[in-house]
Write a structure and sequence with these properties.
Rossmann fold, about 450 residues, Ribosomal Protein S5, domain 2, 13 helices, alpha/beta, 3 domains, binds magnesium ion, nine-stranded mixed β-sheet, binds thymidine-5'-diphosphate
Length: about 450
C-alpha cells in the first residue's frame, strides 16, 4: 500500500496545494508563499464514529417556522434572501474602510432592539472605539454584548457559555487558533477559524457573520477557500470617496445571488437607498452627447443607470480605451461591431466608457446603452433625456431579446421616461403600455436611426 502523505504545502496567497515546497507558486506566481500543513490521520476515529450516524429522508425533516431573523435593514434582508437563516455562516467581504463594521453594528443594533442576544467580537478595534462608532449610529438595546478577542479557542468557549443567537466576528484575518502554528491571516489560520465557526454555527444553530478583508485584486485576502466553506458570501463595494455603497450577494445557499442592496454612508451610519435608479440618475447632464440611460436588472429589481461615453480622435498608434463599471472586453467587442457593421472609424478613436454612480453593471442588457452612448459621442448627437434603452447586442449587430422587458419599462415610466428603445422581439411579446412610446429595433442601425431622428 502506498504510504499516506503526512503533510502538504499551501500557497498563502491563493490556496494552491502542492506535495512539495516551491519557491514560486505556479498559480499566482507569488514568491515564498508556501507553508506546510500537517495532515492528521483520521481513519481509525471515523470507523468508531460511523456506528452512531443515521441517514434520513426529506419527509422526516421538520421545517421550523420563522427560521429567518429579520435584520430590519430591508436592503440587507433582501440580499440575504429574506433575513438571516438560523445556523448560517455569512461572509461579508470588502475593501478596508468601506463600512463593513458599520453595517454589521447597525444590524446588531436592530437585532438587539428585537431582544435577540447578539455577541459582537472584534479583533480590530478596542471597546472604546466600538463605543465611539456606536454613538454615531444611535441607540442600542441591552442584549448586545461586546468582546475584544482574537483567540478562537477562547471565543469558542465564550459562545458556548453565553449562547447568543447571532455572533459577529469582526475580521476573520485577525483570529487565530493555537492548534495552527502559522500567523493570523494566513491560509491555514483563516481556514481553521472558519471551519471552527462553521461547526459552532451548525451545531448550536447560531447565525454567524464574519468580516473578511479584500486584497488589491478584489478577493477575500489570501484564501478563496473561505468562499467555498461559508453559506453566504456578500461583497460590500463602492467608491470609498463617494457616499454610496453596494452590497452584492455572490453566493447564497438560501436565496438568490443576484440581489443588491444600495446604501448611502452618512455621518450617522449607513442609510438604505430605496430608489436606487433615482439616486443613480441624479446629476445627469442635459443635452450632452455621449450620455444615455440604460436599464439593467439587479436580481428582482430593474435599475436605471446613465451610461457615458467619450469618443475622441486618438493621437497615438494604439487607441486608449477604458471601461469603468462594466466589462472592458465587452466594450472592445461592441466597438468592433460598430466598426464592422456600421463602418464607423472606431479604431482611430480613444474611447472611455463610464457607468455613472460607481455601480458595476455586467448584464448584457446594457449593451445597447453602451453602443448608443458611443455613437452619440462619436457623432456628437445628444440623445433625448427622456429616452431609455436596453437590449443585448450580438456580433452581427443584431439587438437580441432580454428578460423581463415589461418590468424594466414600468420602472422607466415610473421615473418619467417617455420613450424606450428595446429589442423588437421583446416588444412583440409585450402588451401595450400607456404613457411611454416603445421603439422595437432589430439591429444597431435601427437603434441609431431612432436616436438620430428623435433629435
Ligand atoms: P468601517 O465600518 O470602519 O469600515 P470597515 O469595517 O469596512 O473597514 O467604516 C469606516 C468608514 O465609514 C470611515 O471612513 C468613516 C465612515 N463612517 C461614516 O461616514 N459615518 C459613520 O457613521 C460611520 C460609523 C463611519
Ligand atoms: Mg472594520
Amino acid at each position: 500500500m502506498a504510504k499516506a502523505k503526512s503533510s502538504v504545502f499551501f500557497c498563502q496567497e491563493c490556496g494552491y496545494e502542492s506535495a512539495k515546497w516551491m519557491g514560486q507558486c505556479p498559480a499566482c506566481h507569488a514568491w515564498n508563499t508556501f507553508v506546510e500543513e500537517k495532515l492528521e490521520k483520521t481513519t481509525q476515529a471515523v470507523k468508531k464514529l460511523v456506528k452512531d450516524v443515521n441517514v434520513t429522508t426529506l419527509d422526516a425533516i421538520k421545517m421550523q417556522e420563522g427560521q429567518r431573523i429579520k435584520t430590519e435593514i430591508s436592503e440587507l434582508d433582501r440580499v440575504l434572501g429574506g433575513g438571516i437563516v438560523k445556523g448560517s455562516l455569512v461572509l461579508v467581504g470588502g475593501d478596508p474602510g468601506i463600512g463593513k463594521s458599520t453595517l454589521l453594528l447597525q444590524c446588531c443594533r436592530n437585532l438587539s432592539e428585537q431582544k435577540k442576544k447578539v455577541l459582537y467580537i472584534s479583533g480590530e478595534e478596542s471597546l472604546q472605539q466600538i463605543k465611539i462608532r456606536a454613538k454615531r449610529i444611535g441607540e442600542f438595546g441591552d442584549s448586545l454584548f461586546l468582546l475584544c478577542e482574537t483567540n478562537l479557542d477562547i471565543i469558542q468557549e465564550v459562545i458556548k457559555k453565553e449562547k447568543p443567537e447571532i455572533v459577529v466576528i469582526d475580521s476573520i484575518q485577525t483570529m487565530y487558533s493555537e492548534s495552527v502554528t502559522s500567523a493570523p491571516g494566513s491560509v491555514s489560520q483563516v481556514r481553521e477559524a472558519t471551519g471552527t465557526l462553521m461547526q459552532i454555527a451548525k451545531g448550536m444553530e447560531i447565525s454567524i457573520f464574519i468580516v473578511g478583508h479584500v486584497t488589491k485584486e478584489g478577493v477575500v485576502a489570501g484564501p478563496r477557500v473561505l468562499e467555498h466553506m461559508v453559506d453566504t458570501v456578500l461583497y460590500f463595494e463602492g467608491d470609498r470617496h463617494a457616499s454610496y455603497r453596494i452590497l452584492r450577494g455572490v453566493k447564497n445557499r438560501f436565496g438568490s445571488t443576484n440581489e443588491i442592496g444600495v446604501f448611502e454612508m452618512r455621518e450617522d451610519g449607513l442609510h438604505e437607498v430605496e430608489n436606487p435608479s433615482e439616486y443613480m440618475l441624479s446629476g445627469k447632464p442635459k443635452d450632452a452627447s455621449g450620455s444615455v440611460v440604460a436599464c439593467s436588472m439587479e436580481g428582482t429589481r430593474p435599475i436605471l443607470v446613465e451610461v457615458q461615453a467619450l469618443v475622441c480622435h486618438s493621437n497615438f498608434g494604439i487607441p486608449r480605451r477604458t471601461a469603468a463599471g462594466t466589462d472592458f472586453n465587452r466594450v472592445n467587442l461592441l466597438m468592433a461591431v460598430l466598426e464592422k457593421r456600421l463602418g464607423l472609424q472606431m479604431s482611430a478613436c480613444d474611447a472611455y466608457i463610464n457607468i455613472a454612480g460607481g455601480i458595476k453593471m455586467n448584464e448584457p442588457a446594457i449593451d445597447l446603452g453602451i453602443v448608443l452612448a458611443l455613437v452619440s459621442s462619436y457623432k456628437e448627437v445628444p440623445i433625448d433625456e427622456k429616452t431609455i434603452c436596453f437590449g443585448e447586442v450580438g456580433l452581427s449587430g443584431e439587438v437580441r431579446a432580454v428578460s423581463v422587458a415589461e418590468q424594466r419599462i414600468l420602472e422607466a415610466k415610473r421615473l418619467g421616461f417617455t420613450r424606450c428603445i428595446l429589442p423588437k422581439v421583446s416588444l412583440q411579446a409585450l402588451k401595450s403600455i400607456d404613457g411611454i412610446h416603445l421603439d422595437g429595433v432589430e439591429n444597431v442601425q435601427d437603434a441609431i436611426q431612432c436616436i438620430c431622428n428623435g433629435n
